[in-house]
Design a protein that fits this description.
Oligomer: single chain
Strand content: under 5%
Length: 146
């Protein structure tokens, strides 16, 4: 891809003094007003604008970058779900994994705008909350029985 510089911004003229009489209700100051120095002409802003646009394009993630991030989040979420499943099948306390799962689901929700995916994340979060509540009840009943 060849990058060409666009046409530069034309030279600006300095501030001039208004010609003609003052507007009604305004009168010149006695003794005369001091002349202000004319503004310096602006430099070539075209190069700066082109550079800003190029940097902005580089910062914007492309479709492949967004897909890579989505795959990474999904893989992390699936790994945690597998760990929760294994801990439940082994009869272990999966409270830490369930807590970690809810954190990852909340982080994933912040980065998505797909309503179908939002629904799946809601279901996962709800199920994790139910399993945590079940474990808390089981622990409370075990502590009372002991």
């Amino acid at each position: 891809m060849k990058i060409q510089s666009g046409s530069g911004v034309g030279a600006t003229t300095g501030a001039g003094r208004a010609q003609g009489p003052a507007a009604p209700g305004f009168a010149p100051v006695a003794g005369g007003a001091r002349e202000t120095a004319p503004a310096a002409p602006a430099g070539a802003l075209g190069a700066v604008n082109s550079l800003d646009a190029l940097l902005a394009l580089q910062e914007a993630p492309g479709p492949m970058e967004r897909r890579k991030r989505a795959v990474k989040r999904a893989t992390r979420l699936l790994d945690i779900l597998d760990s929760v499943t294994l801990s439940m099948l082994d009869g272990e306390d999966g409270a830490t994994m369930l807590s970690q799962l809810t954190v990852v689901v909340r982080e994933s929700r912040a980065e998505t705008d797909d309503p179908a995916l939002e629904g799946v994340l809601d279901e996962i979060e709800t199920r994790a909350a139910v399993e945590l509540a079940k474990q808390e009840v089981a622990q409370a009943m075990n502590s009372r029985a002991a």
